[in-house]
Amino acid sequence: MKLSRLGEDSLLARLLPRLPVGDGVIAGAGDDVAVVHAPGRDHFLLLKTDCVVEGVHFKTAAPPAAIGWKAMMRPLSDFAAVSGLPQFALVTLVIGRSKRSEWVEKIYGGLKRAAARFKVSVVGGETSSTRGPTVISVSVSGFVEKSRWVARSRGRAGDSLFVTGRLGGAGKNKHLRFVPRIEQARWLTEHFSIHAMMDLSDGLAADLPRLARASRLSFQIETDRLPLTAGATIENAISDGEDYELLFAISSRAGDHLRDAWKKRFPRIQLTRIGRLLPLSAINVSPARANRQLKGGYVHFQ
Amino acid sequence: MKLSRLGEDSLLARLLPRLPVGDGVIAGAGDDVAVVHAPGRDHFLLLKTDCVVEGVHFKTAAPPAAIGWKAMMRPLSDFAAVSGLPQFALVTLVIGRSKRSEWVEKIYGGLKRAAARFKVSVVGGETSSTRGPTVISVSVSGFVEKSRWVARSRGRAGDSLFVTGRLGGAGKNKHLRFVPRIEQARWLTEHFSIHAMMDLSDGLAADLPRLARASRLSFQIETDRLPLTAGATIENAISDGEDYELLFAISSRAGDHLRDAWKKRFPRIQLTRIGRLLPLSAINVSPARANRQLKGGYVHFQ
To answer: What is the pLDDT of residue A297?
Structure first.
């Protein structure tokens, strides 16, 4: 059935209550405002919004369940980046008028499956229609223990730099299927002192200099060590983006112990030491210039 | 300058930090995730998202500052509805490609002025572009003391029904300029026991039956008492929507005292007793049918 004949409100009323609702929700989808339990004084509240736009973040022909999955997982990946736990999501769907209601239902199916994967409750949202491309905006709140929050800015000179998983080649549908590294980030901060962390959404060439700049440090990576997705080149690993893997800094001594413990806990997920953080003075280039060098292929500039 | 030449990221980087940032923000706009202080165990956390779409919620020719104002104020009005205080906002702008950057800056100006009006910090967001109409999605978090949360569902038979301000005629730019009744709602729950409350966004004919239904009650209103916007008819007051005034239920005895106190505290804002809540058995129509009667003009059905 064409969406315009179904009515937006009834669609929302039908689909939203089907989404998972978990602990801590006092009033949720169907109420004006979501009312939920606050995380408490020993936690920080985390807030993140991300949107996907048809033709920009997904192709019109992409499987709708995968579009919904990606729309939910993008903001969740940022929770992994700070070692946080997502709890509540608000979903706004602005749907192209030519879409069929079955297509929208499949998007909700993907949103639902992604939310359930991390026990996130969808507590509200809105639908509207548009003459233009479909837009899905997902806002997520959650928390992190104050003692376990990891920023980008506390890397130290000499720290080892690690990445999870494999990099590059996200364009081939990997970007529609990724699982944010929330469990891995939580495990890391439970057992180790992680100095700085972020998720790789724009590619190593863009993201690593951001971490270094936030920590007022320089860096050195060894490109031949980069863990490549099957079929990807080093250039892909550096520049493609949308890997949604973790990049983090840890003291080099702890890094040795980490590798053994990681292998036991996550035997199927690669963990790779790709380089280290250095004092700004150690390398005679600014983080901005290092970024350009990384992009230009002069990566191994030790 | 055309937006496409400016670059979306640089626009966001330039505009977001200009937005107001207040207390409780540990990491905000410019960071991956907003990190803020949690409200604590004696409060509920409130979450709300609302979007405005060009051609649906505002005309293309509307003043951009007013569009930004409305985009921020719509979710804030829902905080008034539950006697909550908004604190943090995330703003997603999906901008039509033909728009000029000056237009976008004026939208941000409106968002900023609206956020500042209620000391809301804009702690993150995203911009993207679209071939279609512009979409602005604003997600807001805040809190309410557990003891002061007002739902729709606790109205009691015999309660007086009040509305703030004047109803109807929102189409004539009133909908672009309204100020959510947050201060009034906070004052009400500080000094009175409010049984049920909501904000009038869809019009009395749609909203009042919702409150009655949530409270499992019927209602009776006297249409000749409705406070009308200058130039508006009773039909406008019932059906136009977008008034963003408060509708609430209070015991009839407290209601008499309330009127005197309100007049002293808010001398410029009308407060009108428009009717009362009744047991379901008192009127031989369902809330759904009452809704239809209200729409059809048979409102005064006592």
So the answer is: 38
> What pLDDT, on the 0 to 100 scale, is given for residue B71?
96
- Count helices and strands (H / E) in chain B: 10, 11
The continuous run of DSSP H or E covering A219 comes out as strand A218-221
> Which tens digit of pLDDT belongs to each residue from B30-86?
677 888 888 888 999 999 999 999 998 899 999 999 999 999 999 999 999 999 999
Residues B52, B53, B59, B63, CA torsion sign: positive
Sign of dihedral through CA atoms B271, B273, B279, B285? negative
Q: What's this model's pTM, rounded to 2 decimal places?
A: 0.88
Cα separation, B257 vs A41, in Å, equals 38
- The pLDDT tens digits for B187-231 are 999 999 999 999 999 999 999 999 999 999 999 998 889 999 999
Structure tokens at B104: 């976008």
Instruction: Please tell me if residue A55 touches chain B, with a CB cutoff of 8 Å.
Output: yes
- Residues 8 through 47 of chain A touching chain B, CB cutoff 8 Å: 26-27, 31-41, 43-47
Closest CA to B272 of B242, B240, B243, B239: B243
Residues 6+ apart with CB under 8 A from B59: none
Query: How far is Cα A247 from Cα A230, in angstroms, rounded to an integer?
Result: 20
What sign results for the dihedral spanned by CA atoms A165, A166, A170, A172? negative
Q: Does the interface predicted TM-score (ipTM) exceed 0.90?
A: no
| Both structure tokens of B43 | 């409060």
Please state, in angstroms and rounded to a whole number, the distance separating the CA atoms of residues B61 and B63: 6
The shortest CB-CB distance from B149 to any of A32, A35, A88 is to A35
Minimal CA–CA distance to B90: which of B109, B75, B101? Answer: B75
Question: A231: which 2 tokens?
Answer: 């079929």
Q: What is the DSSP letter of A29?
A: B
